[in-house]
Amino acid sequence: MGEAKSARDEEFQTFVVASWPRLLRTAFLLAGEQYAAEDLVQSAAEKACAAWSKVRRADDPYAYVRRILVNQHARRWRRRPPELLVDAVPDTAGSEDGFARSDQRGALLAALATLPPRQREAVVLRYWEDLSDSQTATAMGCSVGAVRSHAAKGIGRLRQVSALGELKDRTEIGGAV
Asked: Domain range holding 19?
């Protein structure tokens, strides 16, 4: 019995180590603060550990834990008012995420700070995490229609942010952004 528990613990540890950078980046984009993001990921990892036998049987354990993360974030927003987002996304994704190192990062984070929490969740999950509408709906615990509505409103508000428009204009003119 001790060997089985040890194997489960090792399997959970391997999962957490492999998925931590992606979860941290998503949490940072949702929460907007490094400490809050680390807290969210730690909390999600604790819940996943407690339910590891169920999580590991899921079709996509990462999606299961991401859902826990989004739910934790939603609960925190209900309890306290939003705070301003900071100017830098931690570069925890290594070479897989070239956009995270671009000049547009600061402007995007400032623009994300202007979105209400549900719109920010929809935009981050749908376009940053590149989830489908149905996957985003599952992660947010709402309908596909609600995801489309939140995402469309969020993208509409982001399009109105002048700093993002200026970056787009520089790119179209031929600047290296």
From this structure: 2-173
